[in-house]
DNA sequence: GAAGCGTGGAT
DNA sequence: TATCCAAGCTT
């Protein structure tokens, strides 16, 4: 694997060339958090933007929460951004401005789970650590033809990954396994003819690489309905901040009614106004449900009993840091009648 | 252990 | 279009 990696490693902004000294732990950590459940191509522009604005722990730790959440807008899984800031502040305040170098200490920081702690320990600090992400799970499951379904097979796969992890260059080994999974040993139509492990791969020998890893069936995704409320006055629109926990936690948003299983009415408007239902809807797929949102608008004249929020210039909505579902609503309002 | 948590790419 | 799923973590 290391030989293959030396010749085939992807060139990425947060990565050092194979065999060279480890890159800046700050950049490794930032990239690992952004890459959680997120593809490389999606992460790159965010990583460039973040490292340009906040090049180290000290600068990131000093950011206002709202600025960080706004910069993260569109990347998803917003708890990552909240944990990122909490970890940066812990590092700046309690760890002398540096990440701890061992896996167990890393594991105690916000946003560091089993994967991220192992990856940072191995990639940024040269420690031997067993790094298991979705790519490694797939490669190992195929290499050893693991027949037990995920997620129950995770401990077994972790042990197998441990058994093939070298003492030296464990970080490069981990990145090699992930590159292999991302480019060769793909979920569908793996390119086994290019794989350096093909000779030793049990799934390949059985001619059924795509059958691994075995996974439990997923539940169907329910549909929920809601309404987004666009309150406009003097060229501005009312934005609120969502609660810190839960869906889109801490993000700017339009006021919304309750999201439920049946189509809503204007009855759950956030305040009394002359609401008009537009002839447009927003459809958006979240991890565990699909949302179909109606759009209601009102022009506000005199005083209203509106919730706390910001009257944001409509011409400058791009800078509000709205999550994608609400950015879609802005577009749909523009198209509607 | 299971459920909650975003968004977009690939097929 | 439908489905899978991506360098997972938290509760």
UniProtKB/TrEMBL annotation:
Family label: Belongs to the Nth/MutY family.
MF terms (GO), sorted A to Z: 4 iron, 4 sulfur cluster binding; 8-oxo-7,8-dihydroguanine DNA N-glycosylase activity; adenine/guanine mispair binding; metal ion binding; oxidized purine DNA binding; purine-specific mismatch base pair DNA N-glycosylase activity
Species of provenance: Sphingomonas koreensis
Function text: Adenine glycosylase active on G-A mispairs. MutY also corrects error-prone DNA synthesis past GO lesions which are due to the oxidatively damaged form of guanine: 7,8-dihydro-8-oxoguanine (8-oxo-dGTP).
The enzyme's E.C. designation: 3.2.2.31
Cofactor binding: number and manner: Binds 1 [4Fe-4S] cluster.
Keyword Methyltransferase: no
The protein, known as: Adenine DNA glycosylase
InterPro entries: A/G_AdeGlyc_MutY (IPR005760), DNA_glycosylase (IPR011257), Endonuclease3_FeS-loop_motif (IPR003651), Endouclease-III_FeS-bd_BS (IPR004035), HhH-GPD_domain (IPR003265), HhH_base_excis_C (IPR023170), MIG/MutY (IPR044298), MutY_C (IPR029119)
Class in the EC hierarchy, top level: hydrolase
